[in-house]
Design brief:
The protein starts with a strand and ends in a 5-residue tail after the last strand. The protein is mainly β. Strands 1, 2, 3, 4, 5, 6, 7, 8, 11, 12, 14 and 17 form a twelve-stranded mixed beta sheet that branches. The protein has a five-stranded mixed beta sheet with strand order 9-20-19-15-16, with no helix packed on it. The chain has a three-stranded antiparallel beta sheet with strand order 13-10-18. It is about 10% helix and about 40% strand. The chain contains four helices and 20 strands. It is globular, with a radius of gyration of 18 Å.
Length: about 260
């Protein structure tokens, strides 16, 4: 089942994607279940929003694909390398990613994103998937020069608009048979089966929940495959995960602060 969050004349609602329509839900399905209002809204009339606004945090995994670690001269870490993005970096499908004027090199990172549905603390890997509400697609957008200059990643990956999520949450998704592909202006730049991930979704949830309490609505970005590269204003980035959908965002220059 594909869940969208969207704005319509009635305000912000959730809906189940059914052919070309959204079947409108009575509330946020993560908390209120899947009762419907009886209304249908044509997808063409709905502006899709980020399908989830993380309540507390965006947990990210660095260097979770061997070839991506190698392209920067790194060895993939034995344990998941975790960092956080602020939830103020989240934007939705179609929203512009704004390049800060203080960065000269901004890069896309297409990633599978896990949406947590239940409070998770010290979860065992064998139980971890019980805590997943669904999966979406993300772009761990990065100011690479600032990431390197700072020596840690908070600012370089945390600017406003640096966490596009969407277009929908798929609640029945099997990472074992899915692929991820990132395109810039239609040209394929990243392509990998999700089975190339070093640390599995279940292992990442177990590892992260040993450190942080994961709350419903928190998301985990699972790392990017090889092929990352710079983008500039005017480019359009598409990240597609088979079985979920395509997240498309244009890149613009932020208006410099005067
Ligand atoms: Mg990343």
């Amino acid at each position: 089942m594909k869940i969208a969050r969207f704005s319509h004349s009635d305000g912000i609602r959730f809906g189940i994607v059914d052919e070309g329509d959204l079947v409108v839900l009575a509330g946020d399905p993560m908390f209120a279940g899947f009762d419907t209002t009886g209304e249908r809204v044509p997808l063409a009339d709905a502006a899709l929003l980020a399908p989830v606004i993380p309540r507390s945090k965006v947990v990210c995994v660095g260097r979770n694909y061997h070839e991506h670690a190698a392209e920067f001269g790194n060895v993939a870490p034995e344990e998941p390398l975790l960092f956080l993005k602020p939830n103020t970096s989240v934007i939705g499908p179609g929203d512009a990613i704004l390049r800060p004027a203080i960065s000269e090199r901004t890069e896309f990172e297409g990633e599978l994103v896990v949406v947590i549905g239940r409070i998770a603390k010290n979860v065992k890997a064998e139980d971890a998937l019980d805590y997943v509400f669904g999966y979406t697609v993300g772009n761990d957008f990065t100011a690479r020069d600032i990431q390197r200059k700072d020596g840690q990643w908070t600012r370089g990956k945390g600017f406003d608009t640096f966490c596009p999520l969407g277009p929908v949450i798929e609640t029945e998704f099997d990472a074992a048979s899915a692929r991820i592909e990132t395109r810039v202006n239609g040209e394929v730049r990243q392509q990998a089966p999700l089975t190339d991930m070093i640390h599995s979704v279940a292992d990442i949830i177990a590892y992260a929940s040993a450190a942080f309490t994961l709350l419903p609505g928190d998301v985990i970005m699972t790392g990017t495959p090889a092929g990352v590269g710079p983008v500039v204003a005017g480019d359009t980035i598409e990240v597609e995960v088979s079985g979920i959908g395509t997240l498309r965002n244009p890149v613009r220059d932020a208006v410099p602060v005067s």
